[in-house]
């Protein structure tokens, strides 16, 4: 893909977490290399799948891209601007364009807020008027397939799939160009997963939004991604177009990961 089509570029990204050892008087501190020299790009309207086993650093990469974690070193550029260099205040204009959808919508949605409050929170932070908020909520509920009367409901009054739709509506409120989807289907019933996956697919087609789609579910990633990156112990082992990666994995770790996927045919 052409270089000028790049939306997010990550260069040699590292994130080390301090880990203390011994009692508090013995202050020897070592570092956990959660992300260790990761480089990739996400293009406009593209989905990059990020797979790997638990603890390989996927969520930390997502948080570093969004600057929810400040990287230890490396670059994260959005439309050519390195976000790592910016102060929190300088980052503010970029925040609306970079959003996140979490694994467990129940944990990420304030239980004391109605759906209306949840969706309009980011809008109000960006000084939208009451009329703008009302109109946008109506529009967003429609986009994610929820009925207008649901605006008055609280998170516990939604089903799991509906709650994730609410999370998607909130992420879309400020018209983002890039969304980190961090295991967005893992907390949902299998029967509901396909619906939410199709919704994300439709939104990409409609609005041209790009996704970094984090999952340990290789079949879900295969369905939604244009390209796939495989992470292991904080590093990217292989990054390739979806079909090439699944049909002809080059790295032994990718081969091992794919061969560990159960095949639904008992004869195989
Ligand atoms: N805030 C933190 N402080 C210290 N260590 C952390 C922190 N966040 C993550 N880690 C560690 O960094 C490593 C990578 O974690 P991360 O959550 O990014 O992995 P992951 O691939 O997303 O795993 P999972 O699929 O289980 O969510 C893990 O060893 C984790 O314990």
TrEMBL record:
* Superkingdom of origin organism: Bacteria
The protein in question is named ABC transporter ATP-binding protein
Organism whose genome encodes this protein: Dehalogenimonas formicexedens
Q: Which PANTHER family match?
A: D,D-DIPEPTIDE TRANSPORT ATP-BINDING PROTEIN DDPF-RELATED, TRANSPORT ATP-BINDING PROTEIN
One Pfam family matching this protein: oligo_HPY
> Which GO biological process entries does UniProt record here?
peptide transport; transmembrane transport
> One GO molecular-function annotation for this sequence?
ATP binding
Q: Which family does it belong to?
A: Belongs to the ABC transporter superfamily.
